[in-house]
Amino acid sequence: MSFPRPAQSPRRPWFPLLSGLVSTLLALVPAVAAEPSGGPAQAKPIPAFATVQQVVVRYFQARRDFQSGDLITADVVEPLLAELQQKGLPLSDAAEILEDVPAKGDFLVGQFNTPTGRKFMRRIAAYPNVYDRLDRLARLPNGQQTVRDLIRNPGGEKMVAYMTTTVSGRELGKILTDGPEAKLFTVPTGRIYTVAMLLARLQQSHAAASKAAAGKKNAR
After folding, report:
1. Any idea where the domains of the chain sit in the sequence?
2. pTM score of the predicted model
3. CB under 8 Å to 89, separation ≥6 — which residues?
4. 209 contact partners, CB below 8 Å, separation of at least 6
5. Tens of pLDDT, residues 194-220
6. Which terminus of the chain has a lower count of CB atoms within 10 Å, N or C?
């Protein structure tokens, strides 16, 4: 006994088109879900410099055996700059800042990273431009040995005071060498040695970023 064939549904030429539309809509769902209800994500507002200063001070206060005036290093500063950027401070010059901070393998860093060197560093830290002067001294002929002698000898601190606070001490470079280095002995190196110097540099970066942000806002 044969049964009648069921009636075939009429062809639906619109079905492939509808299927394609559904696929397209499904593909858009993740993108729509990722967008906040308020619209596209907005850039974080630049924090006030007082906030930047608080972040920097707390960062170094949390470091073990760190005191104000201690020599800072690039490997310590790098995570701090990343944190500041996460908090909304644009730092297009972050690489330049790190370049100006002494590296972990820097001569002065190595000398001040010993118990004797650390004590000496903290005794002389308050003298004006002291790290600049010692950095310049270390670059003179036999300068590194002279720095080592200053750290180890009892009269080293007095010699540093003489170098940094007296007129004749500022001319010491001419006494130690007649080379071109002598003319640069009292010229700041432009490097960032301390937290105070880092804050001064960050304030410049903050001012530049704020000015750029204001310019973009006014251009809209």
Report:
1. 51-57+67-101+192-220, 104-191
2. 0.77
3. 46, 47, 52, 202, 205, 206, 209
4. 46, 89, 90, 91, 92
5. 999 999 999 999 999 999 888 777 666
6. N
